[in-house]
Fold RNA polymerase sigma factor.
Amino acid sequence: MSEASDPFKRELLSVLPNLRAFAVSLCGNSDRADDLVQDAILKAWGAQDRFEMGTNIKAWVFTILRNEFYSQARKKGREVQDSDGLFTERMAVHPGQYGSLDLKDFAKALTQLPEDQREALLLVGASGFAYEEVAEICGCRVGTIKSRVSRARSRLLEIMQIDGEMDFGPDKSSASSTLRSFV
């Protein structure tokens, strides 16, 4: 069908210059405006069966363009530019079972420590008390508490067969901070 015999196509082409000018005024960038016009024309072409000939095609296509502009703006507001992958890398979450398994192993190993070492380690490592405060709580010298904590940490590493950070979780970046604070 020729351009002259398709009234919809003829009318659509007639509004292109005004449509592009409107798109440039919205975008402020001619390349982006051209993309927006193309998107609007494609949507209008796809919906031509819903257009009633004899009504205002200019207003109809301008509305499509304006709605497409705002849809793209909303979408762009939700998107994050991450060409180097740094943002995505930080969002990756390893499965929770690694931490859960590490914690179970730790709890089991903790029960194998002598009571005085376990108490000192939990007060310093888990409760966050200073060595001096723990010494006061336990009624002994600060050096004794430091020694108990050191022996407890060494014994936990031995019981859990830990040689380094890579022994926690699936990889180095996800090593369990909870366990590292104790050992």
Summary: The chain has ten helices and no strands.
